[in-house]
Prior knowledge:
Elements: H1 6-9, H2 13-16, H3 18-29, E1 35-36, H4 48-59, H5 72-86, E2 95-98, H6 100-112, E3 118-123, H7 129-136, E4 139-144, H8 155-161, E5 166-172, H9 184-197, E6 200-204, E7 226-231, E8 244-247, H10 250-262, H11 269-280, H12 284-304, E9 320-324, H13 332-343, E10 345-346, E11 348-349, E12 360-364, H14 369-389
Parallel strand pairs: 1-10, 3-4, 3-5, 5-6, 6-7
Antiparallel strand pairs: 2-8, 7-8, 9-12, 11-12
Helix pairs in contact: 4-11, 5-11, 6-7, 6-10, 12-14
Amino acid sequence: MHFSPLVDRIANKGASHWSIHFDAERQRAQGRDVIILTAGDPDQMPPEAVIEATIASLRRHRTRYSPFVGHPELRAAIAARVARRTGRPCSAENIAVVSGAQAGLYCALQCIAGPGDEVIIPEPIYATYEAVVGASGGQLVTVPLRPEIGFHPDIEAIERALTPRTRVLWINSPHNPTGAVLSASEVEAIAALCRRHGLWLVSDEVYEDLAFSCPHASAWGLSEQSIVVSSLSKSHAIPGFRIGWIVAPPPLVAHLSNLLICMHYGGPAFIQDGALAALAVDLPEVVALREDYRRRAGLLAGMLATAQGCRTAPPEGGMFLLLDIRGTGLGAESFARALLEHEGVATFPCDGFGPSGAGHIRISLTAPDGQLVEAGKRILRYVRALGEHNGGSVANLTSGQEV
């Protein structure tokens, strides 16, 4: 069979690590007691107002085609939210409604990067980023995020990575998988760097409502070439709605409209009506959901603090806990697979997130407290058994040996 060169560009290493998630789902379907802490799929119920508005829209037979970049009312509501939160001008002409933040990132990169263009992303990165850059024809360039500074960006290191081919600087805050939340001064410094070098700044802000160490700082409006991508998937526990948006300069939104004609030809009207209800007022469920993740992060981090050969710290935001397991002597994928096999806990190995992710597993906090406590107990039990297998000691952090 003959395939286009695209299939090689989107076949990234991160995708292979989903096999642990799929194995866990299969085992659970077969009746095994498995705790799945892999995907960022909220376990909480969506706000009832959103569900009711969606159902009411369906009953009004809102099932016809929609404008390619979204209904004007929804675009205006998103723009008003952005302007209110950032204090910077934003109008409906700055908004394109898309099928979730993932689609937003894909569409944005398709319109601003092409063959030979370099896209700089601080790593570790979320597993799909590599394929998104590859699909555009661009070249991914990563800059390490160092744990000793809490995985916050080193602006000087980013600037040293720039070349004449650099076109895009892509950031993510709250960060997946590390949980770092960029301060306003850090985002401004990154935007200033983009202004000096004429770069597009892409900011993935899908976890914006889940920042709990400090207020979320948006990149919108900090440069003429700033792009923000976000959605309601995490904040309102509706990932299945596939509703997100791109905030961008109007000329880019016009290009996005042309691209969206080629793709989904406008999103479902009834889903957009549900999203409109989510944006009409600040719903208390959103605050409660953020507090859930804050509490769960502290709970699990406290339990795992005693895990021999492991290191962790409560994240500053998001819905994940990053666990450094290098001291156990196992690589991340080996650790995650053995943890599933022996203890029935599924986690996500971060090897595919970039070199800085090697030796770490990402633990999703999308489970009730009781399940998280049980998962913590199982992880501790597995690490204890691993230490006993090694004669009561753990491998040297730099040995690179696996048991």
